[in-house]
Amino acid sequence: MTRETDLADLIRAHADGAAAVLDVREPGEYADGHVPGAVNIPLSQVPARSGEVPSEGRVYVVCASGNRSKSATDTLRAAGLDAVSVRGGTKGWVEDGRPVTSGARP
Asked: Any idea where the Rhodanese domain is (predicted)?
């Protein structure tokens, strides 16, 4: 079963500087706007690149709205990481008026 959290949890962790955020959308979606500091690993690449995901602390996994992030979270948890899918994803972040970064870099 996928572990999920709400947007408020991500907002708190991000404000504290304690949020490792993984964005599993495609590169074009990510470049259009993402959570500041989020690292982009598209969902299809998560199994092969899970070693690039921080292994210390919680990893907040986002996509557009929360569907792809559930799948990525299951993969990361199977690899032993403390990963949670964020309900509402990047869309919820933007709708809440949170800042976004555009371009290919976190």
From this structure: 15-102
